Amino acid sequence: MDISDLLAFSVKNKASDLHLSSGLPPMIRVHGDLRMINLPAFDHVQVHAMLYDIMNDGQRKTFEETLECDFSFEIQNLARFRVNAFNQHRCAGAVFRTIPSITIMVALPLSIFGACLALWVFGESLSLPSIIGILMLSGIVGKNGILLLDCIIETIASGKSRHEAILEAAQQRAKPIVMTSVAMIAGMLPLLLGFGAGNAFREPMAVG
Known about the structure:
Elements: H1 3-12, E1 17-21, E2 27-30, E3 33-36, H2 44-54, H3 57-66, E4 68-75, E5 79-88, E6 91-99, H4 101-121, H5 128-157, H6 162-193, H7 199-207
Antiparallel strand pairs: 1-2, 1-6, 2-3, 4-5, 5-6
Helix pairs in contact: 4-5, 5-6, 5-7, 6-7
């Protein structure tokens, strides 16, 4: 069984995390409880090989130099995963946290619709600057969505219900999300309100 099979099994069983440790069978965390998968224990070589299969060259170098590495990767049509790879007692280990891609993808069309509506309200056309503005907005929406999802998954893993996790994540992550959004708006206001040569070209970026 390779790492893709393990992660597919984890997602199928609605686990928030997959744990790999040398000398132990793989484990999944479901609603805060760790459950062993009915497989033989993995040794250091097996865990190390699984991690190197999904790392790029830069990540492998970081892992070799610092004995740990945080990164993310995606399995198409399954989910995105945040990975914390580490060495414990000179043996490789890792925790894979599931970040459902569908949830993020649902938020992005809404942000694009809102940006297009703003362009229509301000009488702006779809141009290169407005497309750049829409891409920047989509990045902020995706980042905020991942921030919320990560907190929700972590709270569910601690044993709380999905409803409680959503409410708690909204409270905990409200401040950084608002700060990021305000910073983005503040950065775009000079373009929206600015004067001078060339501003008419840049203004749609701020509207988008």
